[in-house]
Write a sequence for this structure.
């Protein structure tokens, strides 16, 4: 069992960077396959060759019949299966370790560049390049890598390879042995003089063990397919979100940008008013206009009463001025009244 410790430590590190389905797959691999094989496999299959007996005394006949019945031992076949199935996961672990070391190295470079406190364009370019590389490595707040980008594709490829290996070994087991152990095996092979009968020890117990390992293999294959479907859906949804991301600037944003320019007139929002109330500034403008017109009429009446010429309409267009002789300044009786009126 100590031979599996190194593989178990490696796969434990993978569990920290796997999905929920991937963690379940690792649990099935450890507990229900590797552990059961290590504890019960040797005791069930330990007498596989020693208790394989044929009804002949011909030297070498038993060995060749055993070789024909079991091209490879079940125990060794399952060990080989576990190694092949775990290899894509170990490759994914290598990618995780590579990205973690790369992220640490980039952080160190960034801290060194920021410690220089220089406005050299070369340093700024190097800092921008480091930040661009770091943006491609997705990290969580706890410092763990997110399954995104290139790491996502590595994970998907590893799951596909695991599924292919799992299905291939299940088909191979069916082709080599079938899914049950028969008590009697009929053999006809040189140097056996004739067709001989060979007998297998504890066939029922071995058949149960074979069926158990078959069920665990099917569960692992199903988990791999579910995880592959989950990753494809997750990747598809992320691509859809990127495609339907923030659209271009809307019309309101464009108007706000124009208004915020230094040459654009500023607009002021007004609160909505009831229909029965008129705006106060209109009443104010109307009263101001009436007061100015009343002042103008009073001044004109005062000028007519004093015998002076009437004042011209301030709102009428003025004709072209002709050169007129200068008049001597005279006293106007209405000037004081006009001043009082304006005061």
């Amino acid at each position: 069992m100590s031979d599996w410790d190194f593989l178990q430590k490696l796969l434990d590190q993978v569990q920290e960077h796997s999905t929920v389905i991937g963690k379940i797959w690792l649990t099935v691999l450890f507990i229900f396959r590797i552990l059961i094989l290590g504890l019960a496999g040797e005791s069930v299959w330990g007498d596989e060759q020693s208790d394989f007996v044929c009804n002949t005394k011909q030297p070498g006949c038993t060995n060749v019949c055993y070789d024909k019945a079991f091209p490879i031992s079940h125990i060794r076949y399952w060990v080989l299966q576990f190694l092949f199935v775990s290899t894509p996961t170990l490759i994914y672990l290598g990618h995780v370790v590579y990205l973690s070391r790369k992220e640490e190295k980039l952080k160190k470079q960034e801290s060194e560049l920021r410690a220089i406190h220089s406005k050299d364009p070369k340093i700024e370019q190097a800092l921008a390049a480091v930040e661009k590389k770091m943006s491609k490595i997705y990290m969580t707040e706890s410092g763990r890598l997110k399954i995104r980008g290139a790491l996502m594709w590595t994970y998907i490829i590893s799951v596909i390879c695991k599924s292919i290996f799992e299905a291939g070994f299940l088909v191979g087991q069916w082709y080599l042995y079938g899914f049950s152990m028969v008590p009697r095996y009929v053999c006809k092979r040189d140097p056996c003089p004739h067709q001989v009968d060979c007998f297998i020890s504890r066939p029922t117990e071995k058949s149960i063990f074979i069926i158990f390992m078959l069920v665990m293999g099917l569960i692992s294959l199903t988990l791999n397919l579910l995880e592959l479907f989950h990753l494809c859906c997750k990747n598809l949804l992320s691509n859809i979100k990127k495609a339907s991301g923030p659209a271009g600037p809307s019309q309101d944003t464009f108007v706000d940008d124009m208004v915020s320019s230094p040459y654009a007139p500023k607009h002021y929002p007004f609160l909505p008013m009831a229909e029965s109330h008129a705006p106060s500034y209109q009443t104010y403008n109307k009263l101001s206009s009436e007061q100015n017109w009343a002042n103008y009429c009073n001044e004109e009446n005062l000028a007519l009463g004093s015998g002076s010429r009437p004042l011209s309409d301030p709102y009428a267009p003025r004709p072209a001025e002709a050169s007129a002789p200068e008049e001597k300044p005279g006293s106007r009786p209405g000037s004081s009244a006009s001043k009082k009126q304006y005061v």
In short: DSSP finds ten helices and three strands in the chain. Strands lie at 53-54, 184-187, 196-199. Residues 1 and 38 are 6 Å apart (CA to CA). The longest strand covers residues 184-187.
